[in-house]
């Protein structure tokens, strides 16, 4: 084989190698996402969709907080799947949803179910039976979602008066039905590191993970003062628990827990991005961020918008 033929053979081998084994940087980038999500409306601080900066280079989800299957009376009681609006409906109206989506084609709006509390007590997941709860939930949520022109749901129940299997069947069938009916295009869950919470959400994940698009894991529920290395360890642990899921990084804007945005959160996110594991960022919550001028929302979106 002459010199030219040898060189050509070597070049072909190198070309084949790169086709078969793309660089780790290319592989990593392909798994990252530009998804940014923010909970809004739970604390009645008059925050509006239009208050938030929206970077046109990200996919932006507002998550209305909350819709709860309790009565709206002062002594709230469970309604077995008949959901009512509990967010700041004076400032976050159907017309405001339409306006923000019209102005920003990259914006979608979802609602979150449950939350921590209602009235003066906890908001419990408390179905009578799977079928009766499911029927009521599909009907009431379809009505709210269509009235507000929403795109998806998030599940954030944190207290339970039923077993994990019942929770799994109720929520899994709810998501499946709403998707099949064309009512929603995406769904997420919002667990955190608590034994009871994890037992319910991991049961749901095992049976219905295929219909859940995002895992809004509440990393800010870990202790305040979490370090970058601890955060990355937690992220790895929860990515294993929700194997195959798009687990999002998260912070709480008042800095009361987890890895704070001014104490290394963005360093951790950059590390995840370099490894191809940054599936998005979500924030609790716009109500608190308003007083900070949404500076961390801007920083989050800038990081997500970078293509490499």
TrEMBL record:
SUPFAM superfamilies to which the protein is assigned, alphabetical: (Trans)glycosidases (SSF51445)
Keyword line: Glycosidase, Hydrolase, Signal
Position of the signal peptide: 1-27
Pfam family, one: Glyco_hydro_18
Domain GH18: residue ranges: 34-308
UniProt cross-references to CDD domains, sorted A to Z: GH18_narbonin
InterPro entries: Chitinase-like, GH, Glyco_hydro18_cat, Glyco_hydro_18_chit_AS
Presence of the UniProt keyword Disulfide bond in the record: no
The keyword Nucleotidyltransferase belongs to this UniProt entry's keyword annotation: no
GO MF terms held by the record: hydrolase activity, hydrolyzing O-glycosyl compounds
A GO biological process held by the record: carbohydrate metabolic process
Domain of life: Eukaryota
Similarity remark: Belongs to the glycosyl hydrolase 18 family.
Name of the protein described by the UniProt record: Chitinase 1
Organism: Sesamum alatum
């Amino acid at each position: 084989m002459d010199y030219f033929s040898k060189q050509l053979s070597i070049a072909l081998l190198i070309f084949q190698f790169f086709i078969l084994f793309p660089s780790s940087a290319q592989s990593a980038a392909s798994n990252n996402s530009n998804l940014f999500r923010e909970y809004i409306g739970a604390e009645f601080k008059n925050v509006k969709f239009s208050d938030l900066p929206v970077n046109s280079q990200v996919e932006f989800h507002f998550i209305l907080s909350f819709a709860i299957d309790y009565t709206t009376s002062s002594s709230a009681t469970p309604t077995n799947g008949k959901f009512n609006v509990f967010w700041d409906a004076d400032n976050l109206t159907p017309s405001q949803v339409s306006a923000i989506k019209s102005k920003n084609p990259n914006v979608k709006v979802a609602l979150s179910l449950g939350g921590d509390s209602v009235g003066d007590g906890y908001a419990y997941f408390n179905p009578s039976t799977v079928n009766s709860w499911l029927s009521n939930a599909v009907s009431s949520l379809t009505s709210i979602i269509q009235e507000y022109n929403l795109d998806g749901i998030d599940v954030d129940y944190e207290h339970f008066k039923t077993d994990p299997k019942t929770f799994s069947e109720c929520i899994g069938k709810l998501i499946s039905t709403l998707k099949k009916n064309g009512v929603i295009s995406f769904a997420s869950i919002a667990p955190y590191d608590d034994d009871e919470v994890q037992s319910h959400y991991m049961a749901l994940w095992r049976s219905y993970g295929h219909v859940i698009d995002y895992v809004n894991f509440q990393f800010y529920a870990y202790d305040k003062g979490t370090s970058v290395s601890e955060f990355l360890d937690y992220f790895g642990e929860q990515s294993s628990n929700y194997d195959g899921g798009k687990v999002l990084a998260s912070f709480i804007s008042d800095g009361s827990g987890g890895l704070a945005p001014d104490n290394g959160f963005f360093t951790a996110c950059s590390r995840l991005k370099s490894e191809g594991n940054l599936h998005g960022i979500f924030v609790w919550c716009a109500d608190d961020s308003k007083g900070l001028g949404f500076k961390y929302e801007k920083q989050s979106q800038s990081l997500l918008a970078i293509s490499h």
